[in-house]
């Protein structure tokens, strides 16, 4: 067996003998023994672990001091932004109520209570006027004997009045216009004026647009012996008479509904409406997806029935309060 070379073998002849202090406390590392540090050596002894901890702490302190100005400034900026948002929210939330209306609700013919609504006539005058005219009947048609058509986890939706047939004829006698164009303009102004969630819990809003409405389909039509491209409306746009009452904050409605008031009394009645059993949504079904993809009208009809209550939830009576 080969022996290790001599120059690789450990040698202790050049090492000084260990001192008693080193043997007693092997973790202590003494500072250099020059005369300038003699006093410091006599009074202070640090282990390697203590030196590492204190050195790292000092470095972290210095780095934190140098880089701590910007985080402090950013925190100040965030605080100012939060303050501005709070002020904006307080301004948007401070709305004066000009009129009050009531809705008497029945479920399957059984009265369940009254909902009292306060309207923001100064902030959204067109929307508040539309709601007041439909509640009072001065528009030629009212919400009386009209049904709630959708019940969602966060809100309930009333079907409003139709912009065709008997409803439109009765409205035209009084000169009422069942269109949402002016309401859309007011919705755009309200959206620019106030940021943040507008459809908060307990608010009442009019449906003025459909954000999920698909673009019109193009089809060939024969006119005068020529083929022309015409556009077919896939779905009718809202006419600004359907209203929504929210039970919790519903930011998903901000892109389609104009807030015109809030519930003053009767949120327990809204809760009763929300507990009515509805048609289960079935958009995840592969059959529905295929039918929707190929444009089957049966899929469109089925989609309209999703979340519709099985029971008949009706506004039995409505009007304005003094």
From TrEMBL:
Protein name: PPIase cyclophilin-type domain-containing protein
PANTHER family for the chain: PEPTIDYL-PROLYL CIS-TRANS ISOMERASE CYP26-2, CHLOROPLASTIC (PTHR47724)
Pfam name, any one: Pro_isomerase
Originating organism: Cannabis sativa
Location of the region described as Disordered in the Swiss-Prot/TrEMBL record: 1-25
Boundaries of every PPIase cyclophilin-type domain copy: 102-320
SUPFAM superfamilies: Cyclophilin-like
GO-annotated cellular components: chloroplast
Sample GO molecular function, one term: peptidyl-prolyl cis-trans isomerase activity
Lineage top rank: taxon: Eukaryota
